[in-house]
Amino acid sequence: MAGNFKHCIELLESNEKSVQREACFVLTKLCENILKHPTIEKYRKVRLTNPIVMSKLLPASGAIECLFEAGFIETDDGFSLPKDASLSLLEDMKRLIETSQKENPSQEAICQNKEESIIRQESSNSNQIQFFNEIERHFHDALNLENKKLLTDAKLLIPLEKLQLKATERMRFIQREIKTRNMEDKCSDTESEEENFTMEDLLLTELLYWFKYEFFTWVNSPPCNLCSNECSFARVEPAKSPGISRIEIHRCGNCGNEVEFPRYTDPRFLLKTRQGRCGEWAHVFTLMCRSLGYDTRLVVDKTDHVWSEVWSLAQKRWIHADPCENVMDQPLIYEKGWNKKLSYVIAYSKDEIQDVTWRYTRNPEAVRKKRNLCSENSLVAFILELTKQRLHSQSSVRKEYVTKRRLLELVDMLPAPAGCKKIERNENFVYEGRSSGSLAWRLARGETQVTSKKSQKWLIPKGTEHYELRYFIVKDIYEVSIQNDKKIETKIGWQEGIDESEGGIFRKEELDWKMVYLARSPENEVGFLSWTFELSDENLVMSKLKLNALIGAFHGGNVKWEIKKFFTEGSEIEKIAINRSENFEIDLKKAVRVNVKAILSDGNGELAWQHAQLFRQSLNQKEEHSMQISISLEKR
Predict the structure, then answer these.
(1) What is the 3-state secondary structure (H, E, C) of 378-430?
(2) Distance (Å, whole) CA 364 – CA 617
């Protein structure tokens, strides 16, 4: 019987190679199905109406002959293998077909493999060329920011005296904090710590804040220039003028009018329009930093974001600064807060190019798997060559300075040695999702999620008679004062003061309405956050609590409050629900711990999440607090 099969196989091999390959695949699959499921009738039938039979088996000489040799018989609608047929024949046929395919690979298959290899190589080369061209273009854009006229024009737009005054006030506040802490440390026989900061660092903080809230504007879609109604993105058209990368066309949902939104790359235009998205924001902010003498560079993330880095002389390191988010020194925000899957993060200064990916990830293995546009050696060689060309015309002093700075940076990005834990800045920081851009856009990109949490309780110092916590949502800071309004503590970031939160609470800025508030994420029907206060003095108890907080409730949205009092006797807990937060006062009945919770719920339709707003306040009210919790204390 094997001899007869051999004849059938020879007939199969006489077909065109593509016909032979497809017929052999179908026959092999047919054998496998019957051998695996010998009692299932459907696998033992080959119908002529089956499109695979019509297109793969019937055109192939020797295919139907193989079926007959294996024991199939002809039926009214095709072929069938009788129940009493020997399965050993199927095993013989399958083995001979597989052996034939292995021993005699078709020339077409060989050519195809070669072609696929060549295509892969060409594709790889094409990807590398395109990537390297992008790097050159970004470097060129960064160097364009060194234009002296451009730097002068940018500096004239900065309210420098105002920012310097605010930086000075912040400096004095920090110095008072350091002095107080050092005095406490000396009293407790611990070593005092010196803060490593300068006036330049504080001025940079003020510049970042001013740039986001007073100078530049984020644009999702431009308003209609006929009816002022909201537009939505329609398409992209190529730019015809230099200094514009492309032109977005947005269509009005009311009148159908189309509005152009040029995406400028020339900072001269951006200084006038003062609007755009992350690319425009980062270019202009970098330009303004350079105009003030900061060593600043553009940082381009291949997964679609752009920000800045500023060299701190005091700390001898590059500090991450994102003008879109008003965020500084939080390099892990994209991976931990935005849930970005990073691949290449490249920085461009006036002196050099640097691959800074490893500063922005704590999952290097996952990142390496995504870096497939070129080999690591090719990337390093290309970056070094461009840097060498740039530094060729620089003085020997500048070259030496840049080299030392690069070495410091590379050491900073190195992983910890085996068996050692590297101490990370902001290791326990709570990273928020993205705030810039429309919510729908951020949700589509998966960049709204908060991915790390920590619990923070407020500890009331010993000997305190009156304790007060204030939160300012516009500045996003907490201030603590005791006795006669004596400030003792400041924390930056609303998450830094909460004991617990759920429901995807995030800080929302409405740049069109110039308002800001906390809200729950759209996928959550309820969200809450709470603040906990504890005593550190066993001789004191809490007597009264006063609460004042701003809220916004629309279309059935609801903001409720809940206060829990904890007592020493048998861990007794008393819970009180309240529906208002304006001039609310409660007797704490000698509690030793109290928890204040705000609950956001209800609302109408798809925007229900937005109808319950905590701390709703105008962005112009920077010096007015959004929440005030006052606790009076007395002796036990």
Answers:
(1) HHHHHHHHHHHHHHCCCCHHHHHHHHHHHHHHHHHHCCCCCCCCCCCCCCCCC
(2) 41
Q: Interior CA angle at 247 toward 244 and 248, to 5°?
A: 145
CA–CA dist 71, 113 (Å, integer): 36
Q: How many Å apart are CA 153 and CA 150, to the nearest integer?
A: 5
Q: What pairs with residue 364 in β-bridges?
A: none
User: Residues of 64-94 as b/e, b for ≥16 C-beta within 10 angstroms?
Assistant: bbbbebbbbeeeeeebbbeeebeeebbebbb
Pairing, β 627-635 against β 466-472: antiparallel
CB–CB of 434/442 below 8 Å? yes
Provide the 8-state DSSP code for 259. E
Question: What is the per-residue pLDDT across 481-530, written as a single tens digit (0 to 9) for each?
Answer: 998 778 888 888 898 899 988 888 888 887 667 889 999 887 788 999 99
Handedness of CA 368, 374, 379, 381 (dihedral sign): positive
Tell me the CA distances in angstroms from 636 to 377, 480, 563, one per residue in order.
70, 23, 21
Q: Residue 259 class from Cβ within 10 Å (0-12 exposed, 13-18 middle, 19+ buried)? A: middle
Q: How far apart are CA 148 and CA 422, in angstroms?
A: 42
Lowest mean pLDDT among 284-298, 305-319, 474-488, 509-523: 509-523
Radius of gyration of the chain (CA): 34
Ramachandran quadrant class, 426 (left: phi over 0; alpha: psi -120 to 50; beta: rest): left
SS3 state of residue 277: coil
Length of the chain: 636
Q: At what angle do helices 17-36 and 2-13 cross, to 10 degrees?
A: 140
288, 214 Cβ separation under 8 angstroms: no
Q: Are 295 and 321 in contact (CB under 8 A)?
A: no
- What is the Cα–Cα distance from 345 to 326, expressed in whole angstroms? 20
Beta bridge partners of 75: 78
The catalytic site residues sit at 278, 305, 322
Non-local CB neighbours of 154 within 8 Å, separated by 6+ positions: 267, 271, 284, 287, 288, 290, 291
At which residue do the structure tokens 């030392």 appear?
404
Whether the pTM exceeds 0.85: the reply is: no
Question: Could you tell me if residue 307 is left (phi over 0), alpha (psi between -120 and 50 degrees) or otherwise beta?
Answer: beta
Q: How far is CA 220 from CA 232, 261, 442, 553, in A?
A: 8, 10, 11, 25
DSSP state string for 553-596: E-TTEEEEEEEEEE-SGGG-EEEEEES--SSEEEEEEEESEEEE
Token couple for 534? 């504890």
Helix 17-36 vs helix 88-103: angle between axes, to the nearest 10 degrees? 150
Q: Three-state DSSP class for 476?
A: coil
CA–CA separation, 609 and 527 (whole Å): 9
Q: What is the pLDDT of residues 210-241, one digit of tens each?
A: 999 889 988 888 889 898 887 888 888 888 88
